[in-house]
User: Fold this.
Amino acid sequence: MIKIYNMLRFPLVLCALLLITGCLVLSGTFVLTVMLIENEDLVWNGEFYYDEVDLTAEDVWQDHGDDIKNIDLVGFELWAHNLSGSDNTYDVYITQLLTKLDDSSTREEVESDATPVLLDLPLPNGASYISYSQSFTYLTNTDFLKDVVKTGKFKLFAYPETGTNTNIHIDSMRVIVTLTAGK
Assistant:
């Protein structure tokens, strides 16, 4: 009997330590990913792509949204096809969800009332892919971006720097947020 007890004691102590340690973890770093797809999320209004991004519907946000201490990084991945026959660049602006800007706003209103977070994003003729690590090259106003992302909901506007008839198909854009949360 003592031999059986000694054999079970180590696994029981190990399980108890793991349980206690798991309960005492007070903070951690988490990655939240949201995929935006043209014609499902990103709507072209004739001048720009528009979306109301809601991070609060994602599992990571639902698990940790109330305990966010910091938005550490915001980046993206982009898959697109430029079928216009010439290279183009895009700018992306964001604003708080509760602003008057929406898909019926003009480009001038967006440039006046929203904040640019991506400038000169290249979309050369043909297929394009911009990786997560490359996305940091184009980000600007990152403190504002992190503050808006921390609210969980925001409006996004993306438009070409030249012209409005771009013949560009955005296959998808993945927004990747790294956050620290805890009690």
In short: The CA atoms of residues 29 and 140 lie 23 Å apart. The first helix runs from residue 2 to 24. Confidence is low (pLDDT under 50) at residues 14-25. The first strand starts at residue 27 and ends at 36.
